[in-house]
Design brief:
Elements: H1 13-24, E1 36-41, H2 46-58, E2 62-66, H3 68-71, H4 79-86, E3 92-96, H5 100-109, E4 114-118, H6 124-138, E5 146-149, H7 156-165, E6 170-173, H8 182-190, E7 195-197, H9 201-205, E8 210-213, H10 225-231, H11 239-242, E9 250-253, H12 265-268, H13 275-294
Parallel strand pairs: 1-2, 1-3, 3-4, 5-6, 5-8, 6-7, 8-9
Length: about 300
Amino acid sequence: MVKHFLEIDDLTVDEITEILDRAESNDVNQILKRKSVVLLFEKPSSRTRQSMENAVVQLGGNSIYVRPDETGIDERESAEDVAKTLSLFDVAIAARVFDHSKLTRMANASSVPVINLLSDQTHPIQTLADLLTLRQSLGDIEKLKVSYIGDPNNVSRPLAIALNMFGNTLNLSHPKGYGLSASDLNKFESGNVKVNLVDDPKLAAENADVIYTDTWYSMGQEDQKDQRVKDFKDYQINSELMSRANAEAIFMHCLPAHRGLEVTDEVIDGPQSVVWKQAENRMHTARGLLSYLCE
């Protein structure tokens, strides 16, 4: 049976742990030698493309980058037909899409693993890198107080799911009107995923081991920038907010960052920041994931 990776809980805790172990291992199996992985990008990204292409090379394989105009999922041909065709040539299909349903349909039609490189709903490959960063920086994921301060989005959702899988709970702080959607809440409820909602970002930061944030407006939300900057102004991660966290606390951001908005230079460039470790770990966890799925 083909195993796909569309959401973080498509894996068990044991499987995630094995992937993280593979990500840290110096014994890299050339499992993709003389094989190719196709990278379908509807949305551009520097970290995602670089990390995936390098991971494929490190496993001995070749990556094929496909622009949106070259394939036109559901425009030139259906998501199902795209997946069936690419399955003939490649050992895995990795896709970065706007609409998550395209990934689901591709996975249903594909005879090789389909990997979610980001969708409107979730960004699980980022979560793998986050978990590795947490493990390397602070140790036991189960015992950490992780506070996500800012806009609940496709980064915070899989992080909440993953922390619950490891017996932890995400503290979530955001302005009124920007909470989890009804579909998110329904999914969390059906999966028994718990989050702690903390209205005041200062309280969320209190004694935290991890302060995590993301951009206040994402690709495609540029027309909302002015309103969002106004609404989120009290949720900026700055030195005063970081001072409320534990002395050994770390700062995390999936990048790209809008410096001076959701985070100040002194924090993202400061000694508590692990954002560059996060970025590098995108490559290591991509390698671990590919080696696990394609073995």
